[in-house]
């Protein structure tokens, strides 16, 4: 990923897309069709999530390998808690065999139904341990990314320590261990991101020029938006909330339309207000294509030729169907 970024023009914008492995065969068939269309939008790379506690290990690896063989540059998420540490080696070997050379190294959340995360072994307590392990075992074979939290990391529902300043020494530890880039938790308040971006860079010379890729989630329905913001502890500026709450119940299309404006405005603001030093944006797609394609178009990521792909992907550039 760092090589791909280095190959871009100095202030050229780029984007990446996150997918999760579908649960059912039907879901997989739909996903494959969407994936092909979204690949046509030319993300710089895509990422595939790793179910908490390795719950999707096989599916994540299968999909990641399939995407890599389609010619996409894949970054595989990998966690190191609540699972047998042997799975870490298996995943890294399978990724390497498939030609995947990017890993997003994470601690992991507790699997569904479990309240607390558990270290897999004394060796793996935090994401930094996984970064160290990958570097020790595989040298520079993998380009390694880590997570960052513009509004502070929160464990479970305990938001009493929610403050990114608390995480900065550990973020530095992850980069000292060899992490090459940071993808952030989703946010809707660009001022929070801008403050975080500045603080990270000022915290240590080691972090001054690190690539920070802001994570953004399109808004699909009012309920899913409120739920995602709550789970990720992302604050929603009153101006955005007011606009969305003013939409008549059930008018999901209007919510989506507002979401496209909100998220593309964040992209444009962050790019401009950081003097184009933050120029990559990561979209939590939830495996859905239309809003992402429209955001990319409104944020000026797509060239005329690629706009045709949006038309194909969405049915229309000004799509009105969900
Ligand atoms: P860490 O960097 O280890 O930090 C976790 C907490 O521990 C922070 O509060 C930090 O301040 C603290 N900490 C770190 N090191 C130390 C230390 N040495 N001593 C004391 N405290 C310390 N989860 C999944 O299960 N699967 C996924 O695919 C997935 N993808 C994600 C993608 C992104 C972009 C993001 C932002 C998160 C993702 N997550 C995923 C969620 C992530 O696993 C959780 O947020 C998890 O709770 C923390 O992971 P981390 O890698 O940030 O952990």
TrEMBL record:
Task: State a single Gene Ontology molecular function.
Answer: FAD binding
Cofactor(s) needed, names only, are: FAD
Keywords assigned by UniProt, alphabetized: FAD, Flavoprotein, NADP, Oxidoreductase
Q: Which GO terms describe its cellular component?
A: cytosol
Q: Which GO terms describe its biological process?
A: methionine biosynthetic process; tetrahydrofolate interconversion
Q: Does the keyword Flavoprotein apply?
A: yes
Known pathway: One-carbon metabolism; tetrahydrofolate interconversion
Q: Where is the composition biased (Polar residues)?
A: 314-322
Similarity field: Belongs to the methylenetetrahydrofolate reductase family.
Q: What is this protein called?
A: YALI0B14465p
- Specify first residue, last residue and whole-protein length for the fragment: 4 to 325 of 625
């Amino acid at each position: 990923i760092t090589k791909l970024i280095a190959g871009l023009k100095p202030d050229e914008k780029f984007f990446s897309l996150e997918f999760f492995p579908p649960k059912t065969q039907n879901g997989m068939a739909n996903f494959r069709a969407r994936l092909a269309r979204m690949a046509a939008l030319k993300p710089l790379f895509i990422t595939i999530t790793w179910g908490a506690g390795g719950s999707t290990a096989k599916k994540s690896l299968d999909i990641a390998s399939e995407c890599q063989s389609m010619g996409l540059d894949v970054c595989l998420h990998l966690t190191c808690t609540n699972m047998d540490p042997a799975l870490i080696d298996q995943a890294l070997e399978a990724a390497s065999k498939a030609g995947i050379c990017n890993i997003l190294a994470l601690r992991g959340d507790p699997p569904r139904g479990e309240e607390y995360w558990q270290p897999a072994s004394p060796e793996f307590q935090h994401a930094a341990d996984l970064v160290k392990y990958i570097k020790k075992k595989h040298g520079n074979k993998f380009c390694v990314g880590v997570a960052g939290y513009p509004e502070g990391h929160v464990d479970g529902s305990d938001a009493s320590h929610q403050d990114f300043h608390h995480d900065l020494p550990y973020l530095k530890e992850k980069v000292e261990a060899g992490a090459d880039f940071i993808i952030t938790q989703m946010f809707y308040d660009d001022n929070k991101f801008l403050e975080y971006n500045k603080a990270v860079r000022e915290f240590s010379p080691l972090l001054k020029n690190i690539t920070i890729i802001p994570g953004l989630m399109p808004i699909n329905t009012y309920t899913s938006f409120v739920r995602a913001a709550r789970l990720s502890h992302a604050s929603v500026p009153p101006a955005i909330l007011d606009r969305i709450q003013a939409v008549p119940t059930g008018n999901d299309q209007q919510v989506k339309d507002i979401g496209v404006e909100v998220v593309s405005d964040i992209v444009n603001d962050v790019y401009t207000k950081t003097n184009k030093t933050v120029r990559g944006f990561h979209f939590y797609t939830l495996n859905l294509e239309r809003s992402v394609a429209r955001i990319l178009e409104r944020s000026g990521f797509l060239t005329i030729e690629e706009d045709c792909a949006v038309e194909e992907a969405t049915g229309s550039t000004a799509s009105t169907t969900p």
